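Lecture 7 notes: from sequence to structure.
We start with the chain below.
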Amino acid sequence: MDVKKTAGGILAYVGGKENIKEVSHCFTRLRFVLADEARADKEKIQELEGVMQVVLAGGQFQVVLGASVTKVYEELLAMLNQESSVQEQKPGNERRGVNSLLQLISKMFTPLIPAIAASGLIKGLLTAVRLVGAEYGADLAANDTYILLYAASQVIFYFMPVFLGYTAAKAMNCSEIAAMTVGGFLCSPWVNEIIQDVGTDTRIFGIPVGKGSWTIGDATRVFSYTESVIPILLAVFALAYLERLLKKVVPEVLQIILVPGLSLLILVPLSLCLLGPAGIWIGNGIQAGYTMMMNVNPAFGGAVIGGLWGVFVIFGAHRALLPVGLNDVAVSGRQNLLAFAGAANFSQGGAALGVMLKTKNKEMKSVAASAVVSAVLVGVTEPAIYGCNLRLKTPMICALICGAIGGGIMGLGGVYGDSFANNGVLTIFSYAAFGRKPFLFYLAGCGIAFFGAAVSAYLTGVREKGENQ
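Predicted structure tokens for the same chain:
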């Protein structure tokens, strides 16, 4: 693949750099916000080498490239004379509505996914080692290496306000360092100790600091901003507008000191007394609502997510669900959202395997083979969806049905994971932490989703002109 040629073609066919308001990328897609989508030639872009599909969703013009996306993105930035050639959006100037919100969420959470996935991998491997050790009477959880590696797997979650502060500030076009400082403040041991001491009245500037506790099952939890998600998002949102206001009233020669200084002086009490507690309770509400839905009929909930996750991926809407799962881990220490999504991942990989075994078209066979590896090992399904399943239609239907069946089985078995990572073989032991029975249900859901989709896709055949029937 000629990366430079592909990047140049994309740039030309989206309408040139003057038509690009914003460009970013995730694992597999270039994501454009265009001034005028009518100027972009979708068909011409889809004909370029390396382009799997073009998707218009969430107010974005998305070019699906698979594993080559980073190289194409870097080449594209070079052609745009770096990021400065792309118009910056200021807080308050974004297009309003659901599309704008989805774009913002994607910008905030997508950069964190590699670290979260790495954490899930380490934690899953540690769980596997601990379970094997227990079978032989060894408590490996007390081993120094285990303890240190477990700490490494927890860093991204424990300091989530710091990392999320950076990505949220970048998305909101405000000071990343100021946002990280607020996140670090919320995670600091001094603040954590004060917040968790619910029996002591603490005040800042005479205003009561928000504290509290709640009960989940038999466990009682107290306010803690470590591992939290919503409080730092509210703080960064306030920071973005506060900085704009201060820059209007503070003389330019003093802005380098007074803007961040005054921002922190205002945000610290605001976060402790209003935004932080509000964020905690909003997070609790989200978790309670999701739990209530699962308690009504967990098999149905698992089937809905397992069946529709592939559809969410098509439109890029699955990124909007990430905060729900991350918040679930922060509030309760477990999540099942990505377990059900895992059924969808394995079903997409299975359908791609069925295509690979059925077709005699060498190009399609190669695309399907690489898509199987991507979906099954690391849970990245765009190559399977756009490379063969959606293109051939019937395999996509097989994948959606089998993903729903697999997700329903997981919901029925009460499957939960203790970390948050894309579901694939490499992170499979993340779902062994809560007992053997749920883990077996998880394996059964993955297996049925994968092999069911593979067999059904193979038996229904490849229904596209030029492919083997």
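Points to note: Residues 83-95 have pLDDT under 50 and may be disordered. The longest strand covers residues 20-25.
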